[in-house]
Amino acid sequence: MECEDPTSVVSSVSYDTKTNSYSGFSPQLVNGLPIINQFQTNNYNELQQWFEDFDKSTLINANLVEPLLTNNSSSIHSRPYIISAYETNNKYIGIDVLRKWIYMYNECKKRNIIVVGFASDCEARYLKAMQISLDFFTHTPNIDLLSENKNLFHINIPPTWTFFL
Question: DSSP strand E in the chain: where?
């Protein structure tokens, strides 16, 4: 299970000597993912321009993975852990969330990790991503996540549960 939620931080910009980059600015998103080390420079004028052009981050978006318990695992092996965290200015939309989830799902699949779902609070962008991905009350002609996907779970609904049919 992949879970995520942003949390507030004190806005500040700092320099990381190991990556020769600045953190504290809000990176641009490409397909829902932040550009890594976007703010690298040796030019003072470019740094000064970033302070004028880019928002400082007000949030950290943390993505956690929580392994599910099986009969062969113990609670020791089922502790959640952070898979990614990045700074944000909270200016993104539901499709950015969905694109990030698709990327994370595909990367986990490459590593033989089965993602059974994504979870977050009831914030509108996350609800929109869930709505689109589950095909609930929405139609997206350009995004088809359900057909031809052999990795979907199938739920057998008893015929007596007519409220689901």
Answer: 2-8, 14-16, 21-23, 29-30, 33-34, 59-65, 81-88, 118-119
